[in-house]
Specification:
alpha+beta; Nucleoside Triphosphate Pyrophosphohydrolase; seven-stranded mixed β-sheet; two-stranded antiparallel ribbon
Amino acid sequence: MKQVVAALIFREGKILICQRTRHQAMPLKWEFPGGKVEADERPEEALSRELEEELGILAKIGPRVTTISHKYTNGNAVELHFYLVEDYAGEIQNRIFRDVRWARPQELPDYDFLEADVTLIKQLASGEISWTGGRRRGRSG
């Protein structure tokens, strides 16, 4: 099973989402920034490397929010580890994506996300998972 990491970067009540290009696998799908964990890396190291490559930022990787295992219809399986990124140095640059934007969590279902992200999208949109002032918040607040 391929190990993948992704960042949940919140700013002013919005979360950063990225759209794949037409030339990538699963073209034009939306996702959270991140990528594959290499054999010699810890997940946090992989995410830090990916964020620098994709967005040009030096991120402080926070706690793991959730892990989701997903098997695509083509047989590929991924284990996705989502981490909170509350702080980073540098300005976000779009280095590899078709589009990068900030979206309110409740708007996320309006975007065509990768299948593996759909469970998390529902949790973020419903408020089941959210961050306010750097603290994880449940539905009841």
